[in-house]
Every structure is written in C-alpha cells, then in structure tokens.
Write a structure and sequence with these properties.
It is a single chain. Helices cover about 55% and strands about 10% of the residues. By secondary structure, it is an alpha+beta fold. The protein folds into 3 domains: about 200 residues, no CATH class; about 50 residues, SH3 type barrels (Roll); about 140 residues, Alpha-Beta Plaits (2-Layer Sandwich), CATH 3.30.70. The longest helix has about 35 residues. The termini are far apart. It comes from Shewanella japonica.
Length: about 425
C-alpha cells in the first residue's frame, strides 16, 4: 500500500513538472524543505486541533481514568507519529535517484515509527499502573510487575523489528535465532524470570500487597510495602530507610505480614510482669475488708467467700493456714486485672482477653496479659499498652505485692553494716 501511494505521488509530481534528478540539487533541496514543512504542518494540526479537542473532551468527562491517560501524554506521543509517517512517505520519492541515501532515510524513518509506537504504549502502560494504584487493584495484584514484564516484552519485539528493518530481513529470521540463545537469555534474565514467577505466586496467594506491613529480619526489613515490582519489593522501614527485597525471596524465605492485624482491627499485647514470690501471701480479714471496697472486686469477694466457706465446711482445724481453701493476694490481683481489662474501652472485646500465670522462674512469678487493642496504629497501641502497665505497677502495693527487680547499687548501699556483718 505504501509503495502504491508513493508511485501515485511520484506520477503526480511528474505530471506537474516536478522531477528530482541527481544533478538537480536545488530541486531536491526544495522538495526536501517542502516535505519538512508539510510534516511540520501535519504535526501542528494534529497537536493543536485534534489532540487539544480530545483533551478538552476528557477534562469535561465524568470519568477519571481518562484524565490519567491525558496526564501521561499518550495522545501527544501518538501525534509525533504523523510527521514521521509523512516524511517516511515523501522522502523516498524525492530521493528516487539516490538509492543509498533514500534507503537509509527510509529505514531510519521506519525505525523511528517503531520507537514512537512503543513509547506511546509505554505511556499507556504507566497510566494503567497508576489507575490500578488509585483503584486499589495493586493491593490484590502485582500490576506493576505485569506492566514491567510487558514493557520488557515490547522492548524485545521493537528491537527485533528495528533490526529486521535495518537489515531488510523478515523478523521471523531473527526470532528463529533466539532459540539457539535460550540458555544465555535464561542466564542473563534469571532474576527477571524468578521475579515474574514469584510475582504470580505472591498475587495468587495474596502473600504481600502494596501497603502491607511486613517484617523480614534476614533483609533488615520492618515497615510498609511501598512498591511490588518485577524484580524487587520496596519496603519503607519505620525509621524511613528503604529496604529492597528480591521478589523471589518472599516466596523462598519466611517473613511476617501484619495485614491480618490491620484487617481484624486488633493488635496484640502479650507482656508479663514478674511478681516477687516473697510478697505472695494469704489475705487476712483486714485485707479482704479493705479490698472489697475496690469497684472491680465488689462482685468477686461475695462469690469467692461463699464458695470457699462451702468448700471448708468439712475441714477440721480450719485455723491452720494450710488447711482448707483461702484467698491469696496474687489470685485476687489476677481477678482485679481481669475485671479491669474487661472494662477498658480501648481493648477489643471480641478477641482473646486473658490474664494468666506462667511458670515461676528465677526472676519471680510471671503474670501475663494477653489482650488486643482496638486501635492498630503504632503510636496509639504503645500508648494504650503503657497506660495499662503504668496502672498495674502503681496498684501492686494495694495487694501487698512487689514487682521482682534484680538488686541495684542503691540496694547494696542501703544494707546496714551490722546486717552485712551478720
């Protein structure tokens, strides 16, 4: 079709008396200048009339995705094809009698057409990637990985077509040669291939998405995922440093994803305090009278006293502390903590809420809190946790309990000389 159009234009030029001979440099120069002028006018009309009109329609439209295409200048890049195609059509006609120069320019223009087409498609792909980010599709699918892979594929296709145009050979001729170099291609693009396969696995199993908080100690990553690309996963750590993790490492190695915490709306507090075993004792009548005035224990004491009295009815020598059942200060403390946590409006009531006693160690008796806050934001979570333990440490003396603490220099200095001698 191109050759037929060129023949028609050449015949028309001959009819009007325009002929570019090798010896007629002036006529050739004039025709070349006229071709450039026509190409410039065609580009101006396309850019200032057609593209401007379409962009005006896009701005007025109700949808937003077309605005993203406009911002990436897809139409502007396509408009560059017009002058190239005009020159590709006219210059070989003008240089009919200069075969070598005409062939070189013709092939150069064809290569430029391929380059500008791929450039416009790249802009379309970038726009698609941004639309996926805006619509939160990237949280479910690694869109950027697919975009990058398609760009790589287009690059190879464009490269092969360009080489075939320059060499005046069929693209199939060069594609057939790639089979021989498959091993080399696999070696050079090993990370890219592994990254693409890993990206599919990450997407299919929803292992990691943009915005997830992940922790991978092997790579020093602990923060939010900024970007999932073809080869790497970009993590912005909480100290604002950036960690780049190979995509296939997230499939082959272990990592922690905190997405479930965010989706469920509860963040776990799992912390214990160690009670000095020497401060644990049975409650006296005076202790029970005093602690029964605590609001969170008003229901606890009547119930437990009734249960203990019933259990001790058949017990002889009840005056002996080891006989029968009795309330302890640490047991009452656990009951208080349970009621206190259940009435804390900053804790998630639909998740596990437990106060438990762990096995005693040389550091004392651990009392562990296992609860979930209803605010997963880091700063708020730390504040809630600190408030709870501030309160717990402050009320320990009310139950006659002491927190275990290794002796310090102040403790050693407070020992009286006579006590040390003894």
């Amino acid at each position: 079709m191109d050759n037929e159009l060129r023949s028609d234009i050449a015949a028309w030029l001959l009819e009007v008396g325009v002929n570019s001979q090798p010896s007629d440099g002036l006529a050739t120069s004039i025709l070349l200048f006229a071709s450039l002028l026509i190409a410039a006018i065609a580009y101006y009309i396309t850019r200032k009339v057609f593209v401007k009109a379409v962009n005006a329609m896009i701005r007025k439209s109700a949808v937003t995705w077309d605005d993203i295409f406009m911002r990436y200048g897809v139409l502007e890049k396509l408009a560059l094809l017009i002058p190239i195609m005009v020159l590709d059509l006219l210059i070989p006609i003008i240089l009919t009698h200069q075969d070598l120069l005409g062939t070189i320019i013709d092939r150069a223009m064809s290569v430029l057409v391929v380059i500008f087409v791929i450039r416009a498609i790249y802009s379309c792909l970038d726009a698609v990637n941004e639309i996926a980010d805006v619509r939160q599709i990237s949280r479910r699918l690694p869109v950027k990985s697919f975009v990058q892979l398609f760009k790589l594929f287009l690059f190879f296709i464009g490269f092969i077509i360009s080489i075939s145009v320059i060499a005046d050979q069929s693209p199939i001729y060069f594609l057939s040669g790639l089979g021989v170099a498959t091993g080399l291609v696999m070696l050079v693009f090993r990370d890219t291939i592994l990254g693409f396969v890993a990206g599919i696995q990450l997407a299919a199993n929803r292992m990691v998405s943009k915005g997830d908080w992940i922790q991978m100690d092997k790579y020093g990553a602990d923060g939010a995922v900024d970007e999932v690309s073809l080869n790497t996963v970009k993590v912005r750590n909480w100290d604002n440093t950036i960690t780049m993790i190979p995509a296939y490492a997230l499939v082959s190695d272990a990592f922690k994803n905190w997405r479930g915490m965010s989706e469920k709306g509860g963040r776990r507090i799992k912390r214990s305090l160690n009670i000095d075993v020497n401060s644990i004792h049975f409650l006296t009548e005076e202790d029970m009278t005093r602690l029964s005035k605590v609001n969170y224990l008003k229901d606890y004491f009547p119930k437990m006293v009734s249960e203990i009295n019933h259990a001790n009815e058949q017990v002889s020598d009840i005056e002996m502390p080891v006989n029968g059942r009795r309330l302890t200060n640490v047991g009452t403390f656990r009951a208080y903590l349970d009621a206190y946590l259940k009435n804390n409006n900053k804790l998630h009531k639909d998740m596990t809420l437990m106060v438990r006693q762990l096995a005693p160690t040389t550091q004392g008796l651990p009392i562990e809190l296992y609860v979930f806050t209803n605010d997963t934001r880091w700063a708020f979570y730390e504040g809630i946790q600190a408030d709870i333990f501030d309160h717990i440490f402050a009320i320990l003396p009310e139950f006659g309990l002491k927190a275990f603490q290794n002796p310090t220099g102040e403790d050693i200095r407070s020992i009286k000389p006579e006590s040390a001698a003894h």
